[in-house]
């Protein structure tokens, strides 16, 4: 197999097993996750902030020598917070909030699946976990290391400036900022009142060294009060994804969230119905465990399409609990992602991307 920038990672590792050791030496953890089925060396290097040329060279050497060659530190050091066009901060092309109003419908799961699907579509993705008091995103991706801090790259070398958050990075190079990554113990409770929660959300958005992102997903907590209002009023949102489930009570509360979004004059990109049905693995029969679907009713009120109806999948739940959500390989992920990208493309474009300053 020819080793070049356009080589598919999974095919390369299958043909040359030592390639996984070489990629791991560069920090390309996606060599062992579900994204590698879709990823080329060039796309993987870009996602991790690396140059592809040293990676191709090292892989070629490893094939001939049968061992991992020495790699220079500058070749495996990712460019955190790649300089953008505005004051050396990252540019974010689209910001999408995932919202429900109702707790327990799977907003964090939908956010995680969207992030994985977007990475498989070769998009640079970040997640801002705005559910400050009940964060779930780090557990989905198996992240436990506390967030790092770095000096503002836009500040003068001799100037005093407040440190900025360095987002955690998943195996597939998804950038994540969450309150659960502020402390070493994930069980630590954030006992904060509303104004503090709102301030932390703004800090996560404005004082983080995001790389240049195609999409920043914001996982909102349930309700229609402080945190959702902060995001909808203060941040530049391109659209909202509403998550619901086939239950009359959940539908009523999600409709309240839709009304809030409309009052804030933000576009609703679409509706996702989670836990929509269950397919028996032995017979293939489909069962509506929570009753008939209400997705069309919510979509009608939201004046937006149904992006996907997601089934109850024990295998998906097991991957989420184990922190291996990036390994999911279900058709619904690609369908959901394609529908979101189409909805984003249909929205009017801003004149320029967001500048985090």
Quick structural gist:
By secondary structure, the protein is an alpha/beta fold.
Structural summary, described in words:
Strands 1, 2, 5, 6, 7, 8, 9, 12 and 13 form a nine-stranded mixed sheet that branches. The longest helix is centred in the last third of the chain and has 16 residues, at 248-263. The chain is globular. 36% of the residues lie in helices and 15% in strands. It has 357 residues and is an alpha/beta fold. The protein has two domains: 9-76, Orthogonal Bundle (SP0561-like), CATH 1.10.3910; 91-355, P-loop containing nucleotide triphosphate hydrolases (Rossmann fold, 3-Layer(aba) Sandwich). Strand 5 (168-169) and strand 6 form a beta hairpin. The termini are far apart. Helix 8 (194-206) runs parallel beside helix 9 (226-234).
Q: What is the top-level CATH class of the largest domain?
A: Alpha Beta
Beta-strand residue percentage: 15-25%
Poorly predicted tracts of residues: 81-89, 351-357
Strand tally? 13
CATH superfamily of the largest domain: P-loop containing nucleotide triphosphate hydrolases
Whole-number total of structural domains: 2
**Percent range for helical residues?**
25-40%
The N- to C-terminal Cα distance equals: 46 Å
List keywords for this structure.
2 domains, 357 residues, Rossmann fold, disordered C terminus, alpha/beta, SP0561-like, two-stranded antiparallel sheet
């Amino acid at each position: 197999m020819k080793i070049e920038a356009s080589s598919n990672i999974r095919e390369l590792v299958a043909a040359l097993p030592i390639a996984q050791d070489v990629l791991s030496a560069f920090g390309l953890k996606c060599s062992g996750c579900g994204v590698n089925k879709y990823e080329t060396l060039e796309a993987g290097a870009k996602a991790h902030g690396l140059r592809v040329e040293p990676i191709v060279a090292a892989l070629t050497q490893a094939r001939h020598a049968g061992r991992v060659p020495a790699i220079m530190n500058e070749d495996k050091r990712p460019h955190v917070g790649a300089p953008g066009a505005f004051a050396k901060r990252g540019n974010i092309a689209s910001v999408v909030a995932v919202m429900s109003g109702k707790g327990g419908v799977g907003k964090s799961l939908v956010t995680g699946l969207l992030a994985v699907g977007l990475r498989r579509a070769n998009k640079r993705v970040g997640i801002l976990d705005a559910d400050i008091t009940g964060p779930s995103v780090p557990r989905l991706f198996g992240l436990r290391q506390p967030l790092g801090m770095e000096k503002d790259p836009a500040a003068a070398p001799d100037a005093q400036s407040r440190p900025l958050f360095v987002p955690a990075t998943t195996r597939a190079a998804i950038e994540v900022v969450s309150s659960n990554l502020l402390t070493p113990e994930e069980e630590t409770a954030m006992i904060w009142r509303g104004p503090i929660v709102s301030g932390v959300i703004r800090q996560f958005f404005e004082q983080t060294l995001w790389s240049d992102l195609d999409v920043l997903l914001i996982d909102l907590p349930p309700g229609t009060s402080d945190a959702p209002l902060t995001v909808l009023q203060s941040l530049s949102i391109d659209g909202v994804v509403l998550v619901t489930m086939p239950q009359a009570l959940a539908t009523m509360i999600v409709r309240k969230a839709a009304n809030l979004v409309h009052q804030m004059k933000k576009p609703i990109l679409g509706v996702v119905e989670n836990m929509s049905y269950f397919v028996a693995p032995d017979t293939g029969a489909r069962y509506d465990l929570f009753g008939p679907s209400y997705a069309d009713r919510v979509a009608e009120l939201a004046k937006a399409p149904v992006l996907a109806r997601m089934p109850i999948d024990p295998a998906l739940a097991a991957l989420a609990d184990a922190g291996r959500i990036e390994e999911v390989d279900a058709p619904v992920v690609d369908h959901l992602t394609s529908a979101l990208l189409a909805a984003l493309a249909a929205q009017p474009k801003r004149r320029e991307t967001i500048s985090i300053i």
